[in-house]
Amino acid sequence: MGTSLDFRKNPSTVCVILGGGRGTRLYPLTKERSKPAVPLGGKYRLIDVPISNCLNSQLNRIYVLTQFNSASLHHHVSGAYRFDRFSKGFVEVLAAEQTPDSEQWYQGTADAVRRNMVHFGDWDEMLILSGDQLYRMDFRRLLANHRRTNADISIAVLPVEERQASGLGILKVDTSGRVIAFHEKPRPEQLRGLETEPELYNEFQIDAAGRPYLASMGIYVYNRRTLEKQLLETSYVDFGRDVFPSSLKSQRVQAFLFDGYWEDIGTVRSFHEANLQMADPHPKFPFYHDDSMVYTAARMLPPTRIGRVSMENSLIADGCRVGDSTIKRCVLGIRSIVGKNVHMCRTLVMGADYYETAEQIRTNKEARRPNIGIGDDVIIEDAIVDKNVRIGSDVIIRNPESVEPKETDLYAVRDGVICVVKSAVVPSGTRIGK
């Protein structure tokens, strides 16, 4: 839109990534970790996506706000994102803390930002992001549009079909891009009149045929004065429910139209499918981008070793050992170990945090405990195998009828997907499902 995208001389934007609440919809993957720390795509974590989008947009002052099971997130971020001493860049995790002013947990996304204002230093604009979404965006274009339109607040929006609209926050936008109304998960009869004029789509060079509605992506830009007034002079606790809707009458709120891949990874099913799509011949979210890489922790792992394997549409991360097996539409995470005669399909294996030593393997044998990884003669379908899981030989894990049985110490079924919990020990001969 005719605006320079070189932001290297502009240090006024601070990025805040909201780590989310308890992540109950992703349970049991969030049983021992925060939602942004959930492993993704074999070698990444969810938090790597928004951080990488920031870094690729030349924005390197980044805070991650979290409060539940934050230890693994701290460990990952501190190890993965280190800037040289001459740079002003940082990625810092801010966990909920007790202060003389408040001894409570964060009450919502807005409350989390409010209570951390003292830590953010000097800034003119705040870019507020979610920690559990999968997408690529050049935030410089969002910020350029924000400044060009003299907006107080900007929000990134996505064209969607009518069938999608009822599950999202839908905005009414005029031909200048100004937001004039907001409806959270509207019923079909409430959609009438919320369609977006074609002129706005044309301005953003978007072909939105069949997608007349604009949905909130939960990505905001706030000017400092506007945000401080809304947070420090009110008791609002949530951006999507309280702060943003209350701004429409008193502030200039501008929409920024985005038309790339975007997935809100809020459920086990959506998380499972998003990972498997990465292994497709033409993935919706490919990692093969020289100019918009997804960054993560650097690991000194050996090459993956593969036996006589029949494999289709799968991803295998570094440091794996795979025996003579059949693998279809699967993702194998770092240090995954797969035995012989294993038949695995539509499965995400998160891998392991370490290799077992020869002494540990001898101890496992004496205790009749499986080694970390997947043993011989195993069948796994439509599953997520969390980190450091031990699966013995002659095991079947599948759920063809998508039955959701009672949760056990070994696994839980969510949205039809069997999730073998982190560090579970599945004895030889176990049958999960039919």
Relative helix content: 10-25%
Q: Determine the N-to-C terminus distance.
A: 57 Å
CATH superfamily of the largest domain, by name, is Spore Coat Polysaccharide Biosynthesis Protein SpsA, Chain A
Number of strands: 29
The profile of the biggest β sheet is:
10 strands, mixed
Estimate what percentage of residues fall within beta strands: 25-35%
CATH topology assignment of the largest domain: Spore Coat Polysaccharide Biosynthesis Protein SpsA, Chain A
**Unreliable stretches:** 1-9
Radius of gyration: 23 Å
- CATH architecture grouping of the largest domain: Alpha-Beta Complex
* Quaternary: single chain
Taken together, the total number of domains comes to 2
Give the number of helices: 10
Q: Structural class per helix/strand content?
A: alpha/beta
**What form results from the Cα inertia axes?**
globular
Mean pLDDT: 90
Q: Which CATH class of the largest domain is shown?
A: Alpha Beta
Would you kindly provide a written description of the structure presented here, covering whatever features stand out?
The protein has two domains: 13-277, Spore Coat Polysaccharide Biosynthesis Protein SpsA, Chain A; 305-432, Hexapeptide repeat proteins (UDP N-Acetylglucosamine Acyltransferase, domain 1), CATH 2.160.10. The chain has helices spanning 48-56, 71-80, 109-115, 139-148, 162-165, 198-203, 224-232, 239-247, 268-277, 358-366; strands spanning 13-18, 39-40, 44-45, 61-66, 90-95, 125-130, 133-135, 153-160, 169-173, 179-184, 213-223, 253-257, 262-264, 305-306, 310-312, 315-316, 321-322, 326-328, 331-332, 337-338, 343-349, 373-374, 379-385, 390-391, 396-397, 411-414, 417-420, 425-426, 431-432. It contains ten helices and 29 strands. Helix content is 19%, strand content 27%. The protein is of the alpha/beta class.
